[in-house]
Amino acid sequence: TVEKMKGNSTILVTGGSGYVGSHTIVELLKNNYTVIVLDNLVNSYSDGGCKPEALKRVEEITGETVTFYDVDITDRAALDKVFKNHKIDAVMHFAALKAVGESVRIPLKYYQNNVGGSAILLEVMACNGVKNMVFSSSATVYGDPQFLPITESHPTGQGCTNPYGKSKYFVEEIMKDVCTADPDWKVILLRYFNPVGAHESGLIGEDPSGIPNNLMPYIAQVAVGRRDKLQVFGSDYPTPDGTGVRDYIHITDLAIGHLKALERMFSPNFKSWKAYNLGTGHGYSVLDMVKAFSEVADRPINYEMVGRREGDIASCYADASLAKQELNWVATRDIKDMCRDTWNWQKKNPKGFKSS
Ligand code: NAD
Ligand code: WQD
Questions:
Q1: Is 164 tagged catalytic?
Q2: Which is nearest to 166 in space by CA: 137, 195, 203, 135?
Q3: Whose CA is nearest to atom 29 of ligand 1?
Q4: Helix ranges (DSSP H) in 91-230
Q5: Residues 315-332: pLDDT tens digits?
Q6: Closest atom, ligand 2, to C-alpha of 244
Q7: 34 Cα–ligand 2 center, Å
Q8: 0.95 exceeded by the pTM?
Q9: Which of 164, 192, 248, 284 is catalytic?
Q10: What pairs with residue 246 in β-bridges?
Q11: CB atoms near residue 105 (< 10 Å)
């Protein structure tokens, strides 16, 4: 049964002290999975103690403990040791660099870390007889969409304009080839749309270092007074109000999607690989988000219209019906919930995890 499987399964989570990983671990622990985390801390805060701050908070939320390894996925020997130390049933692979602009400046770093690191991880998994993988992919693999809403059968790889996006596409292709070569492999590719929000406790959330690249954390930092005003990148897109439209999805819904994917992968009729969109199916503009946040936080959000950001697309939102049919998953949290939980996290942790 599913209940028995949960209680008996050990999941290795790479990049587990990051934003999506930490929220997913909360849901895994709530469902009785045993969780082993590895992260090299390149994008998550630690005070130098035994565990990164995000994982201490996860333990506070759940009352459960996780085993943590400060390991880089490109370090084959260290990875292998983790697999030798534990009987791992499946890997959830979040570890990656994710800053689009940075990936244009230092592409090799992105390919080495995201593509090279994933290849090494797959090899070490195979050597240790672990052939179950849930991978953090992205709607970015669809490029500038040819049609909306985007289904999983939309072409991938064609319009990826930056090395980050290409790295996600390349890893997807590598994983498909691995499944073709060896029928024992099971892989689920989860294509996230735009994850936002925070755990309802306000104990964990998105903690960008430096100036946020993404919309929601930027708005939150303006609201809390850390930044002067939001720059709205482009007001002449072919959208209802001229600003970019995206499918924002609450991080807790996204995390639950990972559990559903795991259950699907462990079901007897699942074979080879399959890709699923994780989105709400609804598109909201930049100004919609500013308005919703301003209402929830009960204060004006200062903003100015500026030119388009290079590489941005006008609109992107999911057809999320395949995940509903096959994973039995739908997003249940709306943009008000997303704004409220982001604001709760931002107020409680004005400087992110460093506030503690
Ligand atoms: P994040 O940066 O918060 O988390 C990633 C974690 O991976 C970090 O803790 C970082 O320290 C770690 N890491 C990076 N390289 C590593 C390496 N070589 N070895 C070990 N650990 C390493 O990012 P996130 O937002 O939680 O994203 C998680 C995954 O989801 C990533 O693969 C990302 O590309 C993907 N994704 C994110 C979004 C988004 O908007 N947040 C959207 C689509 C896909
Ligand atoms: C959303 C909208 C901006 C910041 C990126 C990656 C994508 C995925 C998620 C991982 C756009 C506008 C933003 C700001 C703004 N990551 N904006 N002012 O670009 O949809 O996706 O993160 O896979 O690969 O490309 O998300 O949050 O950066 O932007 O006006 O300061 O907000 O132009 O319309 P994006 P975002």
A1: yes
A2: 137
A3: 94
A4: 100-105, 107-110, 117-127, 163-181, 215-223
A5: 999 999 999 999 999 999
A6: 34
A7: 34
A8: yes
A9: 164
A10: 284, 316
A11: 10
